[in-house]
Specification:
The chain contains one helix and nine strands. The protein is an alpha+beta fold. The strands form two sheets. The chain has a five-stranded mixed sheet, with no helix packed on it. Strands 1-3-7-6 form a four-stranded antiparallel sheet, with no helix packed on it. Residues 28-114 form the YtkA-like domain.
Length: 135
């Protein structure tokens, strides 16, 4: 293979690699992210702490600095959707982990609903997570 042919092959391979990288970055979508419970079971009572991790699904990496604007916690998993509890955001203890203080008045299934905006992404991420409050 001549030097000119070799340079052409390397240039073509580099161009192909760059176009794949650009296409992958352009395909980022709000559905590539999700909230995951840090713990699926939480002790019920006043001042219960519920923590979630926001991750980019393809890499599994935590996503810091999201703006969470919608939160709700209720007992929908146990058929009591109208039984909601107050919920308050707490400071994060690690990047990509979002913590909330709530009053899980009774043991059973609870649903945490979250809405957030992620910096650099278009759209809103919305997740509903089910956790269990234990006695």
């Amino acid at each position: 293979m001549t030097t000119a042919l070799m340079k052409h092959a390397v240039t073509a391979a580099l161009a192909a690699a760059l176009s794949v990288t650009a296409f992958s970055a352009a395909k980022a979508d709000i559905t590539d992210y999700e909230f995951r419970l840090v713990q699926t079971e939480v002790k019920h009572g006043k001042g219960a702490i519920v923590a979630v991790r926001l991750v980019e699904k393809r890499s599994g990496k935590a996503v810091p600095d999201a703006v969470i604007f919608a939160t709700r916690i209720d007992m929908a998993p146990d058929g009591m959707e109208t039984m909601a509890a107050p919920i308050e955001a707490l400071p994060s203890t690690e990047p990509g982990v979002y913590r909330f203080k709530t009053n899980l008045t009774m043991a059973g299934g609870w649903r945490l609903s979250l809405g957030a905006k992620i910096q650099g992404e278009t759209g809103t991420i919305e997740n509903k997570l089910v956790l269990k409050a234990t006695p």
